[in-house]
Write a structure and sequence with these properties.
The complex is a heterodimer of chains A (about 280) and B (about 240). Chain A is about 55% helix and about 10% strand. By secondary structure, chain A is an alpha+beta fold. Chain A folds into 2 domains: about 150 residues, no CATH class; about 60 residues, no CATH class. Chain A has a 4-stranded antiparallel beta sheet with strand order 2-3-4-5. In chain B, the strands form 2 sheets. A 5-stranded mixed beta sheet of chain B has the order 2-1-10-5-6. The two termini of chain B are about 25 Å apart. The chains are: A alpha+beta (about 280), B alpha+beta (about 240). Chains A and B meet through helix 2, helix 3, helix 8 and helix 9 of A and helix 1, helix 2 and strand 4 of B.
Chain lengths: ~280, ~240
């Protein structure tokens, strides 16, 4: 215990730096809640028709490109089957035949712990999804307005000349899990900036757009606009893929948060204060 | 947190909070969309090889089955409620009304879509014939298909006057150039193209104009609405 305190001391020798302003912190956590619920209720909605297609309709004489299915064997066991571009995999326990809330195998695309509500319940899942979709959109619009007005976007997120020149080095640093200390740690590194910008300006707008592309009401706004993305069923497929790209982003994001100092990072997104080590330590 | 979500889903009050999003969505779409904004129409080549039947494929209703056996010769569509001049229309009467033919995409709430060609009497023409009273706010569609195995709980739906007068809102009697088959709602089904599939009531036998549907069946304006789905199904 004594030794541990001693070892931790140099780390604490840094100084607190006000890194994230209150509006950004609030909007970050609202986004965490909204996206989590959107994902989990979305997986429940997917279960109502667990097939994805490319094109304007689901029935165009072509098979689904992705399908999660449940089947039963001769001895009445449920098996989960997942088909991707015609290749079939047994995914019992993971997809198709999954554990319900009582632990028994049931015919359901995703395990109950991944969905809201637990069991297949399309009407309720849609209620959750469409309510939190509004929260997500309003929060996102507020974030964009704030980031532009407060120059958060220009100052903290837009890569500058130095960033562009250091992409290669930053890439190698990430591969070796080496991260800037001291003064440099106060700024986002270039890969971090690019990742955030891709999420903010590509993935999140795209998942919203592909969501409303599934709305027969919004489709009537400019008839045919959905065909730019390949049609309504393609839009549904893209919506699903982007959801998983966002999950991948979150996994990497949380990994980086952990290896660069979990508590320091968490505190900075809660109280705003980030402890930067003294330079030339 | 997840157990919390489960409790909230099954609570009395929380789903009502979530339902608040429905009126926001409806207002936003009504604000954004011109009243007569048209649903996308497709080319012949976009049509699905066969149009999927979902929900009821054969109504378990003796009266309906007898009518079907007679080729719907005795079919009558009664239109009444808050109207100046109630009418009772045969299939021939409906076919004589101004019609519209459209190739549209049917979007099921489950997530799938299918494209087909529909021909039917314009609902606006039917409404013009019955002279709706100023107090009429919704058009109710009562159907022949029972949703319970014991033959009770007949399917029903409702739309507002804005959708009722929309040019693409038709009482369809033809599907892909042939008479509407029984699995798809013979002899008459509704097409209300800017909303999801469950609004497109099949096996319609009676239309009623009302001021409110609060006292009809479950009070939510439709069979699926009474089971938790949105009344405004534009999303």
């Amino acid at each position: 215990m004594q030794q541990e305190t001693a070892a931790a001391k140099p780390e604490r020798a840094g100084y607190l730096y006000y890194r994230h302003r209150l509006p950004v912190r609030i909007m970050h956590w609202i986004n965490v809640i909204a996206l989590t619920i959107l994902l989990m209720s979305g997986l429940n909605i997917f279960g109502a028709h667990p097939s994805l297609y490319w094109g304007k309709s689901s029935y165009a004489g072509r098979p689904a490109i992705f399908q999660i299915d449940a089947d039963s064997t001769a001895d009445n066991r449920i098996v989960g089957k997942t088909r991707i571009f015609g290749h079939e995999f047994d995914t019992t326990g993971w997809l198709g035949a999954t554990r319900g809330s009582d632990g028994a195998l049931v015919a359901s695309s995703f395990p109950s712990w991944m969905t809201i509500p637990d069991e297949r319940w399309l009407a309720m899942a849609r209620r959750w999804h469409l309510f939190f979709a509004w929260i997500f959109v309003i929060n996102g619009v507020c974030y964009l307005a704030y980031s532009i007005a407060s120059r958060h976007l220009a100052r903290d997120l837009a890569p500058d000349g130095n960033d562009v020149r250091s992409i290669g080095r930053s890439f190698l640093d990430h591969l070796r899990f080496r991260h800037p200390k001291g003064e440099a740690s106060k700024r986002y590194n270039v890969l971090q900036k690019i990742a955030y910008l891709v999420v903010i300006f590509v993935l999140l707008p795209l998942i919203f757009l592909m969501g409303v592309a599934m709305s027969p009401g919004v489709d009537a706004l400019i008839p045919g606009w959905v065909d730019v993305f390949g049609g309504r069923q393609s839009a549904r497929t893209i919506h699903f893929i982007v959801a998983w790209l966002l999950v991948a982003f979150v996994l990497i994001h949380v990994f980086e948060v952990i290896i660069t100092g979990l508590w320091n990072n968490l505190r900075s997104m809660i109280t705003g204060n980030y402890r930067a080590a003294r330079a030339c330590r | 947190m997840l157990a919390g979500c489960e409790k909230l889903s099954k609570s009395e009050w929380f789903p009502k909070v979530l339902e608040g999003a429905e009126s926001v969505t409806r207002s936003a779409q009504r604000l954004l969309l011109p009243r007569k904004a048209m649903a996308q129409e497709f080319a012949e080549s976009d049509r699905s090889p066969s149009f999927r039947s979902n929900g009821t494929a054969m109504p378990r209703n003796a009266q309906y089955l007898a009518m079907a056996a007679g080729g719907f010769e005795n079919y009558r569509l009664d239109v009444g409620g808050l109207v100046g001049k109630p009418v009772s229309l045969s299939l021939a009467d409906l076919r004589a009304l101004p019609s519209r033919t459209q190739i549209t995409r049917h979007d099921c709430v489950e997530g799938w879509s299918a494209i087909a060609k529909w021909k039917g009497a314009k609902l606006s023409a039917v409404l013009d014939a019955v002279q709706p009273k100023a107090s009429a706010r919704f058009v109710m569609f009562y159907c022949a298909d029972p949703m319970e195995a014991d033959g009770t709980s007949l399917y029903y739906e409702s739309i507002d006057m804005e959708d009722a007068y929309h040019p693409q809102t038709i009482l369809a009697y033809d599907l892909n150039d042939t008479r509407l088959p029984i699995p798809n709602g013979a002899p008459i089904r509704l097409r209300v193209e800017r909303q999801l599939g469950y609004k497109h009531a099949k096996y319609i036998t009676r239309i009623e104009l009302v001021e409110s549907f609060a006292n009809i069946a479950g009070g939510k304006g439709g069979y699926w609405e009474d089971n938790g789905y949105e009344w405004y199904a534009g999303i």
